[in-house]
Amino acid sequence: MKRLPSFFPLLSAVIAAGGCLLLVTAAQDAVTGWKAGAASVAITPSDPLWMAGYGGRKEPSDGTKLTELSAKALVLEDADGKRGLVISLDLVGIDREMSARICQQIEAAHGIKREQIAIATSHTHSGPVVGRRNLGPLHWWLLDADQQKKVDAYAEELVAKVVAVAGEAIGKLAPARVQWGSGQSTFAVNRRENLPQTDVPNLRERGILKGPIDHDVPVLSVRDPESGSIRAVLFGYACHATTLSGMQWCADYPGYAQMAIEAEHPGSVALFWAGCGADQNPLPRKEVALAQAYGAELAEAVEETLDAPMPLVAPTLTTRFQEIDAPLAEVPTVDQLEQTAATVEGYEGARARYLLNEKELGKGDDAGLDGTYPYPVGVWSLGNEVDFIWLGGEVVVDYAIRLKRERRGEQTWVAGYSNDVMAYIPSLRVLKEGGYEGGGSNVYYGLPAL
Fold it and tell me: What is the mean pLDDT of residues 189-204?
């Protein structure tokens, strides 16, 4: 009998150990103690490039765009000078290696250490492939050499832009008032429980949609302490950014939401982070008008929160980051991988070639061939008001629901798709049920086992 994959007990341990990581801090003068800075840069590819997220595409992007793709940075500095840097990217995800490169360069340039940095991705499926490792068997390892070179060149450009925008945000540090709140938006639907998905409009109208969801919209506002004007907004939502599946660049509903917020507050920077939405879809979908409508709905939830009284966040910041060696089940041998690479077409063969290449480069252990994977967990405490948990991979909604229930409710914010997007992370419930999120998707990411 196969043993259960170990990501579930791993994250259960994270929940149990949360009290050790989420340090309680003394409240201070929340109006004057914070400093903050934010910046944004376009990362839309200048040339047609292969697109990430769907396996059915047979050619690169057509080179046009519905929206800009952006990299954004928000740096917070507390009353003691401790800093935390949030980077948000309009991308399907990034891998551990790219994340490490970005963090190393930021530390070298600005002295901000790895545990002080959180890299969030929106998981848009209308952005570019960003390297050999994130969804590598789905994309990079099936491309011809010319397209592979273009993807690698874009990845180099991306790292440089992210490091630069972080520096720009740091350069804009100024006194700020930081506040928190939480709204609601209801377009996310549990995609496993409501089938066929074409029935969703009828099920919604009848009020009988099924399955766990997380409709919270956490909001962190950064305001000028004198005028009260909005300088930055950090917000999240637990739902796949898969409204669209065409050949044009687009940040999907998170991008439209950010654009609407920035238009409402000229000169501000709006940053999005994706929650635990691995099993959540925007439904219905496949139309640009729907992506715009979902973005408008999400932006409205943010604006309603900004307009309501928002509690101040005390100017104390604690950041933690740890990679936990998560055991994997049934890792194949090198002989088995070589056999698969030589005889199997498609994604299975591509995964085998990827893993063999990583081993040849001396990175086999980092890719899971030693039977473990370094799973990233970040935990931030903002004053006594917000516990912010950053989880890697595509995390199903069960984790956010449980963490909120066992910790601080709407004051516990749980991001997925952070720092390293290496696999779907099912709960025990989803794992037992099986299906795409319960293990079927693993081949597309490249891990030798889950």
Answer: 96
* Cβ contacts of 268 within 8 Å, gap of 6 or more: 38, 230, 231, 232, 233, 261, 262
CA distance 105 to 110: 8
- How does residue 25 score in pLDDT terms, banded at 50, 70 and 90? very low
Cβ proximity of 353 and 141 under 8 Å:
yes
Contact (CB, 8 A) for 389 and 118:
no
pLDDT band at 417 (very low <50, low <70, confident <90, very high): very high
Q: Is 175 exposed, middle or buried (0-12, 13-18, 19+ CB in 10 A)?
A: middle
Per-residue pLDDT reduced to its tens digit, 134-152: 999 999 889 999 999 999 9
Structure-token match 């769907």, residue found: 54
Q: Are 413 and 392 in contact (CB under 8 A)?
A: no
User: What CA–CA distance (Å, rounded) separates 33 from 146?
Assistant: 52
Neighbours of 79 (CB within 10 A): 16
Q: How far apart are CA 411 and CA 395, in angstroms?
A: 19
Separation CA 43–CA 164 (nearest Å): 12
Rounded Cα distance, 225 and 230, in Å: 10
Handedness of CA 294, 298, 301, 307 (dihedral sign): negative
Mean pLDDT over each residue of the chain, to the nearest integer: 93
Tell me: pLDDT of 11 over 80: no
Single out the residue of 66, 273, 303, 285 nearest to residue 183, CA to CA.
303
d(CA 100, CA 108): 12
Residue of 315, 321, 271, 259 lying closest to 165 (CA atoms): 271
The CA distance from 232 to 243, in Å, is: 26
Asked if residue 355 lies in contact with residue 365, where contact means CB atoms within 8 angstroms, the answer is: no
pLDDT at 18 (0 to 100): 47
CB neighbour class for 405 (10 Å; exposed up to 12, middle 13-18, buried from 19): exposed
What's the pLDDT tens digit per position in 27-84? 334 456 999 999 999 999 998 999 999 999 999 999 999 999 999 999 999 999 999 9
